[in-house]
Amino acid sequence: MRAWVLLSAVLWYLTGGGAPPARPPGFPQLPGPLYTVLFVIVKVYVKLHHNSPVLVCMDFKRAEKETVDPTYLWVGPNEKPLSGSNRINITNTGKLTVKDFLEPLSGLYTCSFSYKTIKAETQEEKVVKQRYDFMIFAYREPDYSYQMAVRFTTKSCEGKYNDLLFRVLKKILDNLIFDLSCHIIEPSYKCHFVKVPKHGLIHELFIAFQVNPFAPGWKGTCNESIDCEDTTNHNILQARNRIEEFFRSQAYIFNHDLNKTLPAMHFVDHSFQIVRMDSCRPGFGKNEGLHSNCATCCVVCSPGTFSPDVDVTCQTCISVQIYGAKSCQ
């Protein structure tokens, strides 16, 4: 039985409303090469397990000019010269790409660039040296969950029917999103008296719950992917849409009932509320002040900070000397 039918049947049964009404028919492209300018450190954000953009060892003005005898020397976060490898790619024109980016690869990347200027009349040569800095940070998308709230009318704040409705609703919603490896957590409800204009006092159940993408066995949906965030975030978005459509159907049913005989327990139209809640994996956090260009990202915790759980901030720990620390040691 479809979820909307099941809940409608329960509501009409609980309130003696007879048979429910019939439902009417129908219902990362990478950026281009990155240049910097002298004396400016450019911040670059690379998604975990993705390739960095191409970093160019000269400014844009110099790239538009002829350059004689250019040389390039890239130095990585460990302050050692970088050389070509299966993870580091440096072209003969000084362009750097870091492949399959990981937390420990975060840090300052510096390129020392030199070239010659030659006076045409004397053939006198002069060596010009310049330095360009890129600060690269690993990041990942936050894990999404949704806090939702709805309201149902009820006959009274006493009696067993309120608890029964609450348990049936949770079961319906869990079944609705089960195949997405999502589930309902922290469900709760309270009964209140509500003064409604032109209707006097009525009883309403204020129901709240969270939709979470980490139901038991959720890792099995990742298809052996190294990073599961894209899958879990896709699933939680699907779960949100299904639940939103479910409550939209409840409003449709009762607003379009030809007999206009609503059961005493029914969904309160326009009461559905939803708020997205973000969390970061251990070793990552949000910092809009430090990472304004990636304010919604979970950015790797810098040395001197750590994040031990699914919080959204990196905590201070002066003894930490690495990127992506998950503990203060």
Automatic annotation (TrEMBL):
Q: Where in the cell is it found?
A: Cytoplasmic vesicle, Secretory vesicle, Acrosome; Secreted
Signal peptide boundaries: 1-19
Gene Ontology biological process terms, A to Z: acrosome assembly; binding of sperm to zona pellucida; circadian regulation of gene expression; membrane lipid catabolic process; negative regulation of immunoglobulin production; sphingolipid metabolic process
Any Gene Ontology CC annotation: cell body
Primary localisation category: cytoplasm
Q: Which UniProt keywords apply?
A: Cytoplasmic vesicle, Glycoprotein, Secreted, Signal
Domain of life here?
A: Eukaryota
Q: Which InterPro entries match?
A: Ig-like_dom, Ig-like_fold, Sp38-bd, ZPBP1/2_C, ZPBP1/2_N
Is Signal included in the keywords of this UniProt record?
A: yes
| Domain Ig-like: residue ranges | 33-128
The record's comment on protein family reads: Belongs to the zona pellucida-binding protein Sp38 family.
> Protein name, please?
Zona pellucida binding protein 2
Query: Which organism does this sequence originate in?
Result: Capra hircus (Goat)
